[in-house]
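3.2 Worked example (two chains)
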Amino acid sequence: MSLKQNYCYKILKKYSLIIDFDGTPTRKTVPSPVEGETYGQWKNRVLGDSASNVVLYTPTEPAHQTRISTLQNRAGAESLEKIFSAFGKTKEKQKKSAINEAIENTEQKYETFSRDTLRYLLEDSSESLEPSVVEFFERFLNTTNPNIDTEKLISDLMTAYNAAVRMYRERS
């Protein structure tokens, strides 16, 4: 959204006025309303001296015989269309960003779990676990990462279990 379109949108939000003008806004933020202010005072204060061809889009009911093409020519809403188009694009970007963030958070939830969870499970069953099993899990607790990678844990468990079964078979 261009600087001018963004400024017009901010005016819409603050004053409930749909506006268009030629020039560049002299301010970055739209000032707050002033009680009893006239249009001329408002225009100078909010838009500055460099704004020209200021148009306010106000609801009017045209005569029934007025041609649509006449209304379209009067409206001259090309800039307004750009504002709404840019607003739609901005909203679409925000929506996509929120969706991507939700996907990442969901993946994070299922790909990892906190070290505290593993620590709690170890403490809860430490009396029934063999010392080598406790040592195995302590390695994961001593990593610097606050979350434990589920895939890595399962892979390491499979490797350790496979090695233990192989050693058992070789000795049997």
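3.2.1 Second chain
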Amino acid sequence: MKIKKIGFTLCCLFLIVFLVFVMIGLNITGPMRLSHAEDAHAYETAKKRFPLVTDFYRHAFQYVTYSGISKDEVLIFDYEGMLVMRKDYDESKINAVKNQVKEDYGIDAEVHIGYGYNNAVFVVEEDHFMVYYDYDTLEIVYYFRGDLI
């Protein structure tokens, strides 16, 4: 009789521990799945309206925005996939930003196009380092270096 009580208690304890781990897993992955669904919706909406968009990039700063390149234009979309801004695409500006980052900070980083401070920006993010350059003037509009804190 005592062995059955101990066995029952251990089974209940195992079940409780198992349920706690399942709930933790759901709380961690739930928001991530929602974010992926929102990204997919914005991407599909933008692709329907602008089928030639390539290099789709998600950027979160002031707002969550998505940028893409279509022919000779940069298109920036909001979280619903609606067009926010359209700019002329110039590959030489991206190369200029890459060279500037290499010269100033010694970093070979990818340069993406995002949205911040009410204009398109060139986004350079590497580990604990972020610098955003204004798309038109190439001036630094945001700088953060986490290892200095």
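3.3 Remarks
Residues 3-148 form one domain.
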